[in-house]
Design goal:
Layout: E1 8-9, E2 16-17, H1 25-46, H2 54-64, E3 67-68, H3 69-76, H4 80-92, E4 96-101, E5 104-112, H5 117-134, H6 140-161
Antiparallel strand pairs: 1-2, 3-5, 4-5
C-alpha cells in the first residue's frame, strides 16, 4: 500500500521526512539521534570489550557498591534474563563478582571488582570522547541549552511513563 503523503522537508535539514513522521518531526529527529548515538557508543565500548548497555550496569555498581541482583535489574530497567546474561559476560571478564547475600541467602549480591578500576577510567574516557564527538561545533551556551531542553523532554517522558530515573 502506498500512502498518500506530501513530502516535507526535515526541519533538521537531513532530507525528507517519511509521511508517517510528518506529525512528529522532533520525535523522528530524537529517534535518529538516539540510534546514531547508541551505534557510536557501541563502537567505542567494543574497543573496551563491552557490549552496549553493560557500561550502565557497571556505572551503577561503581557508584553504589554491592547491590542485590534484583535491585540492579530494577535500576537499569532491563529484562532479568538480559541482565543475567550481561552479568555472566562481565563476570567472565573479571569485572563483576556475584555472591550470596549474607542477610538473605536466596538473594545474590553483585559488585564491581578491583580489576574493573581500569575499566572505570576507560569507560569515563569513552564517554568523554563520545560527548565531544556528539557536541562538536556547539558552544558552551548551546551545550547548556541542549542539556536543559533534553532534561525537559526527559521529564515529559517520565511523567507519561511513570518512570522516574534515580539519577
Amino acid at each position: 500500500m502506498k500512502a498518500d503523503r506530501t513530502a516535507s522537508a526535515d526541519p533538521a535539514g537531513l532530507g525528507v521526512l517519511p509521511g508517517a513522521a510528518l506529525g512528529g518531526p522532533v520525535s523522528h529527529a530524537v529517534s535518529r539521534v538516539a540510534r546514531l548515538h547508541r551505534i557510536t557508543a557501541g563502537r567505542l565500548l567494543k574497543g573496551l570489550g563491552l557490549y552496549p548497555g553493560q557500561e550502565f550496569l557497571m556505572m551503577h555498581l561503581w557508584d553504589t557498591g554491592a547491590v542485590r541482583q534484583a535491585e540492579l535489574i530494577k535500576a537499569v530497567d532491563l529484562d532479568p534474563s538480559t541482565v543475567t546474561k550481561m552479568l555472566q559476560r562481565l563476570e567472565q571478564a573479571g569485572h563483576v563478582r556475584r555472591r550470596p547475600d549474607p542477610d538473605d541467602r536466596r538473594a545474590v549480591l553483585v559488585e564491581a571488582t578491583e580489576e574493573s578500576c581500569a575499566l572505570y577510567a576507560e569507560v569515563r574516557g569513552a564517554w568523554s570522547g563520545l560527548e565531544e564527538h556528539t557536541l562538536a561545533g556547539l558552544g558552551s551556551a548551546e551545550r547548556a541549552e541542549l542539556t536543559r531542553l533534553l532534561a525537559k523532554v526527559e521529564a515529559n517522558l517520565c511523567q507519561e511513563t511513570g518512570d522516574y530515573p534515580a539519577q
